[in-house]
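[step 3/7] inverse_fold.run input=structure_tokens len=1219
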């Protein structure tokens, strides 16, 4: 017999089952889950690429349950839904009509059968054949409840979208629409429409046709092919789409006798029972899909649409009601998890249960599973047992003990016990008890006293399994009491906890096999002594500081008088300055204690960072990313940290960094470089320190029970310190200044290495960061200059050496670098770097810290960072000497925004395209593209004419999908030669573009900041005009003294005005030509879309050359939403805000964008990863289970994405609310 699954499990499987990928994995809907082998590698139960469906109701096709209604033997429910993500249609039919003898459907409150427990019956015939591949065919799976008196059968139908991806492309792709328009012009000549169809038009018209066909009215059934709008929108390309939907076409004679082709709308039958499948349904389905497609098109592009948006509600609650599992009993603290479909431990799936079942339901699932699949009872017992332990559930553990006392032993335990005595488990049934006892005694003689316990335990397992009192008696006698536990460790009552831990470690070191006994003994001592530290030690294996008392806390800050009210802000600022204090965790603890004491004894409060903050939004904590408070002028650091956190493989690498740390031996480091610098032990030490800080911080980002956390200062200073100059400010600061703006060829070295300083000596270094500076400016510029000069002697001492005794901090004049606090040193570093550099620095740090997997060119270490972020770029140099090739690994591309708004493609085309160099030309392409592409925008540039930095504010238009094809060496469809041909065509147009740009710049440039030539002329004209008016007024009033003003010729103002207009027109004309050229360039690569990348993050800056503020927008692929991460604020934001330019005096500017290869977005990104501590207490247990009882490797196992149907805003802009 095969196992079954309870109704909630069935529903969860439906919500994650994806027929498109069925052949790649076991069919998770109908195959029994694989038995979990604790030693084996844990596999994701749900392939990551599967759609986590967001199901919405199709009311016309449904027969919904009514709340409170009791089903009878005639009841059939049908919940028809479609998914707004993958557009599949999923029907759940719950049929109560079977055998009239079965009249007790399972339900909550029933004494025996609380939930349906379904067995898979088979695949029914699909009523809707489809010629596509097997994965894309409709399937109907039937399940029947295993309860003896329950009549319920469930049919689950999965139907592919009515519109394939290709159909949608045919209908909405602009290139195709343009071609169609060209064809229309050829066919219809003068009668053709004058503009091409918009992206939205075809689906919008189609929607109207379909709507008309559902509600037919006379005169609206016939569409002549030559109708000019129809012709340019659909043409001939859409015949198969129309026919699939029931449209028909034929030739008819026109009045003038000529034949013309005409389309007729489909003729669906009248609405029938929702249980029948008809053409009408097909049309309704198509309209739901069109609704999704249209709403995905930006609102600005759908003005004038006839389509009226539909906002159907989510269907999950209806399905739950139909399956009688709308509100089953849940374990406390787990509700959110199951709603998120976070992947449960495989043991739950094996029981046909899900993680949020309360203990009674777990037992119910266990008993149902044993009832239908007796053969695997010992495995199900194993599942139950481990869930019990994992949950630390007394109720379940009691039940397990009860079952065990009845002789039920788990499969794993039994096999293990036999093997322990060198008996093949297969032979167990034929071997006598005496043989086993003999084997046990033989063992005792040659094992150490410490192992005896283990032997006894194994013997008891066999005794239980074999129901043998003889074996049980032999096995009796383990550590049960506090006295025994102390004796086992050779301890006295008087020994303190620290000593207990020491003895524990010694014992395990002596004999690793005694681990389990030692843990048991330790846990007995911990419980007897009620020692939190010992419990913690047992749980985490780490020693915690001895408890700090109030006296220690005050002493830590050097405060003698504990009874005076203190200025807590001062203490707090001392704390955040960090300098001078050693262990920051200890100081924070001391501060927290003092605050507590001051609050209760002195009624002295401050706004406390450690106290729960008031919530900032209403999202449940576990569904919302944490904000990062700003610790100084380092706000771009927060953006970088937020970004890195969302890159799942990177985050997992950091969280599990201890498994990957680089060995410090000379052999391990020999001959390897990171960032072109040899890896030295010093670099590795600093890098590992950073990685550990980052891990601790990521953990806090995950577990914090507040909306925000604060990066610690050590993390920040390590992130800002170059790996080749440990713990000081950078030796050779990279200043984001380059020569550009005008026609000169761009200095390419900036793309990969330190950038050249500005050519003029008087230009000060630029600090692209940041907001308000609090310190004394003089002191700062002083030290930053020193740091800039790289003068070793003047560099501040390494900030991390604490003095032996915490001194009482006193305000000191900031006269020398040695008295600078950590934060100010940090801010100096910060001023010299920007987000791009910090990110590169962090990559190098991580690479230095971790073991490589080999070496690449130039001995550069190959590792996870390289694989994620580094592309292999080839530069082709054509000079008189011939053709040369340069190869380089790059973690980002640097493009110049220029002076005009334009799309990212255009900027990248410039960067990659052919350029003049001394004695020849060069161009770039990507030999191997990294899955994550970072493109930085050079906003601050050096203007040679003005000899100063200018901020290039041009808007760079981003597409949410970018095709990398044109930058690659080759793609699956185009070989190197074919791509080169296309490139050559592009270069020619780029040459013209550059000439025009030069001309345009010429026409624009003036010496006046913020004004172009046309504006300058216009202003001058207005001024002269005003002057003349004023003068004539004065003359009329006969005032003296005004005649000394020069009199401009009266026609000058007009002439200037004309000139201004002329110039503006000229610029406009050039703009038009340039835009056309860019469109042409774009068109060269129009069909190159094999390698799509999706937009993931946009680093954004508002400010100027002297400072400003950074934040980041990050897309959450799992929840289809953009968020803005602005220091401590993480907010929902619509896509428009991310993509569209701002107006105003100082519009925001993107400084970096990140694209991720489209097929990897789910695997590589996860914006939300929270397990707030307070909420996690109950679920923590399951995590423990994994650690303590499961050797399975969970590190590599992606967790499922949250897809809380009830919380997700399903349709953009409309809050569907909860059902
Ligand atoms: Zn879906
Ligand atoms: Zn049932």
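[step 3/7] decode complete -> sequence:
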């Amino acid at each position: 017999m095969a196992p079954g699954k309870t109704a909630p499990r069935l529903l969860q499987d439906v919500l994650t089952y994806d027929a498109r990928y069925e052949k790649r994995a076991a069919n998770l809907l109908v195959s029994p889950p694989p038995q979990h082998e604790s030693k084996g590698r844990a596999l994701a139960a749900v392939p990551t690429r599967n759609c986590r469906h967001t199901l919405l109701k199709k009311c016309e096709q449904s027969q919904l349950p009514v709340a409170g209604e009791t089903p009878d033997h005639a009841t059939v429910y049908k919940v028809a839904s479609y998914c707004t993500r993958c557009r599949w249609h999923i029907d759940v039919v719950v049929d109560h009509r079977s055998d009239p003898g079965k009249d007790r459907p399972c339900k909550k409150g029933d004494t025996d059968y609380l939930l349906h427990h379904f067995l898979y019956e088979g695949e029914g015939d699909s009523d809707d054949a489809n010629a596509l591949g097997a994965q894309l065919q409709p399937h109907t799976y039937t399940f029947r409840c295993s309860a003896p008196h329950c009549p319920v059968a469930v049919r689950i139908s999965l139907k592919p979208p009515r519109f394939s991806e290709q159909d949608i492309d045919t209908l909405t792709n602009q290139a195709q629409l343009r071609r169609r328009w060209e064809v229309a012009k050829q066919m219809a000549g003068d009668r053709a429409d004058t503009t091409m169809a918009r992206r939205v038009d075809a689906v919008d018209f189609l929607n109207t046709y379909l709507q008309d066909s559902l509600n037919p009215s006379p005169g609206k059934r016939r569409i002549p092919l030559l109708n000019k709008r129809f012709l340019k929108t659909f043409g001939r390309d859409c015949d198969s789409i129309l026919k699939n939907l029931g449209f028909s076409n034929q030739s008819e004679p026109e009045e003038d006798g000529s034949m013309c082709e005409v389309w007729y709308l489909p003729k669906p039958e009248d609405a029938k029972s929702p249980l029948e499948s008809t053409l009408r349904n097909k049309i309704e389905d198509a309209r739901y899909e069109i609704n999704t497609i249209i709403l995905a098109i930006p609102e600005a592009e759908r003005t004038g649409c006839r389509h009226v948006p539909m906002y159907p509600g989510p269907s999950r609650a209806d399905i739950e009601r139909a399956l009688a599992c709308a509100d089953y009993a849940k374990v406390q603290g787990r509700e959110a998890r199951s709603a998120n479909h976070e992947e449960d431990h495989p043991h739950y799936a094996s029981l046909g249960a899900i993680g949020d079942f309360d203990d009674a339901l777990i037992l119910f699932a266990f008993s149902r599973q044993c009832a239908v699949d007796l053969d695997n009872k010992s495995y199900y017992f194993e599942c139950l047992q481990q869930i019990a332990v994992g949950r630390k559930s007394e109720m379940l553990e009691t039940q397990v003990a009860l079952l065990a006392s009845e002789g039920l032993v788990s499969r794993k335990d039994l096999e293990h016990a036999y093997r322990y005595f060198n008996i093949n488990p297969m032979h167990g049934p034929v071997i006598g008890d005496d043989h086993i006892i003999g084997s046990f005694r033989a063992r005792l003689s040659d094992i150490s006293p410490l192992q005896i316990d283990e032997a006894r335990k194994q013997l008891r397992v066999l005794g239980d399994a074999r129901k043998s009192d003889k074996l049980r008696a032999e096995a009796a006698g383990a550590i049960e009491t506090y006295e025994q536990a102390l004796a086992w460790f050779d301890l006295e009552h008087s020994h303190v906890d620290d000593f207990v831990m020491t003895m524990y470690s010694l014992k395990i070191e002596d004999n690793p096999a005694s681990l389990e006994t030692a843990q048991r003994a330790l846990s007995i001592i911990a419980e007897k002594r009620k020692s939190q530290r010992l419990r913690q030690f047992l749980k985490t294996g780490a020693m915690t500081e001895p408890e700090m008392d109030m006296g220690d806390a005050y002493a830590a800050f050097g405060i003698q008088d504990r009874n005076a009210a203190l200025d807590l802000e001062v203490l707090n600022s001392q704390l955040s300055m960090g300098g001078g204090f050693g262990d920051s965790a200890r100081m924070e603890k001391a501060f927290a204690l003092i605050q507590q004491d001051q609050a209760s004894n002195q009624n002295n409060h401050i706004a406390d960072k450690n106290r729960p903050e008031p919530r900032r939004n209403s999202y449940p904590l576990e569904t919302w990313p944490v904000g990062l408070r700003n610790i100084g002028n380092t706000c771009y650091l927060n953006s970088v940290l937020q970004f890195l956190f969302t890159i799942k493989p990177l985050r997992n690498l950091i969280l599990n960094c201890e498994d990957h740390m680089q060995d410090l031996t000379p052999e391990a480091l020999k001959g390897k470089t990171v960032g072109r610098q040899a890896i030295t032990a010093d670099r590795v030490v600093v890098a590992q320190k950073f990685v550990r800080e980052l891990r601790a911080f990521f953990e806090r980002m995950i577990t914090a029970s507040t909306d925000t956390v604060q990066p610690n200062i050590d993390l920040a200073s390590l992130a800002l310190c170059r790996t080749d100059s440990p713990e000081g400010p950078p030796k050779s600061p990279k200043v984001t200044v380059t020569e550009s703006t005008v026609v000169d060829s761009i200095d390419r070295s900036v793309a990969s290495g330190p950038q050249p300083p500005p050519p003029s000596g008087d230009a000060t270094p630029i600090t692209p960061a940041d907001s308000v500076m609090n310190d004394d400016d003089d002191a700062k510029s002083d030290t930053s200059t020193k740091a800039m000069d790289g003068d070793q002697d003047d560099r501040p001492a390494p900030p991390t050496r604490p003095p032996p005794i915490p001194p009482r901090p006193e305000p000191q004049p900031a006269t020398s670098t040695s008295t600078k606090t950590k934060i100010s040193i940090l801010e100096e570093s910060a001023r010299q770097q920007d987000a791009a550099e910090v990110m590169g620095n962090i990559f190098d740090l991580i690479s230095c810290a971790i073991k490589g997997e080999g070496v690449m060119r130039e001995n550069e270490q190959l590792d996870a960072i390289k694989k994620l972020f580094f592309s292999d770029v080839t530069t082709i140099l054509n000079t008189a000497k011939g053709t040369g090739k340069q190869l380089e690994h790059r973690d980002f591309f640097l493009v110049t925004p220029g002076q005009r708004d334009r799309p990212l493609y255009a900027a990248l085309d410039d960067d990659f395209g052919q350029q003049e160099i001394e004695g020849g030309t060069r161009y770039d392409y990507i030999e191997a593209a990294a899955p994550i592409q970072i493109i930085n925008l050079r906003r601050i540039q050096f203007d040679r004419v003005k000899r100063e930095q200018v901020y290039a504010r041009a808007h760079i238009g981003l597409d949410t999908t970018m095709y990398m094809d044109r930058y690659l060496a080759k793609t699956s469809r185009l070989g190197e030669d074919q791509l080169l041909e296309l490139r050559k065509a592009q270069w020619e147009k780029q040459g013209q573009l550059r000439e025009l740009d030069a001309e345009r710049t010429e026409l624009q440039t003036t010496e006046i900041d913020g004004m172009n030539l046309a504006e300058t002329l216009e202003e001058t004209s207005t001024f002269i005009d005003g002057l003349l008016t004023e003068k004539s007024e004065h003359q009329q009033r006969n005032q003296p003294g005004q005649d000394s003003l020069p009199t401009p010729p009266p026609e000058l103002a007009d002439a200037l005005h004309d000139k201004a207009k002329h110039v503006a027109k000229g610029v406009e004309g050039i703009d038009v030509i340039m835009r056309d050229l860019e469109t042409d360039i774009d068109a060269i690569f129009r069909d190159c879309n094999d390698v799509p990348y999706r937009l993931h993050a946009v680093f954004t800056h508002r400010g100027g050359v002297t400072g400003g503020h950074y934040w980041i927008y990050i897309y959450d692929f799992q929840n289809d939403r953009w968020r803005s991460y602005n220091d401590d604020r993480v907010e929902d934001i619509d896509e428009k805000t991310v993509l569209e330019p701002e107006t105003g005096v100082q519009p925001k500017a993107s400084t970096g964008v990140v694209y991720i290869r489209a097929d990897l977005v789910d695997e590589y990104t996860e914006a939300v990863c929270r397990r707030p501590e307070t909420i996690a207490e109950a679920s923590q247990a399951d995590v423990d289970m994994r650690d303590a009882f499961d050797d399975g490797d969970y590190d590599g196992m992606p967790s499922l994405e949250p897809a809380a149907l009830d919380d997700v805003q399903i349709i953009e802009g409309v809050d569907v609310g909860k059902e």
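[step 4/7] annotate
The chain has a mean pLDDT of 77.
Residues 975-1037+1045-1085 form one domain.
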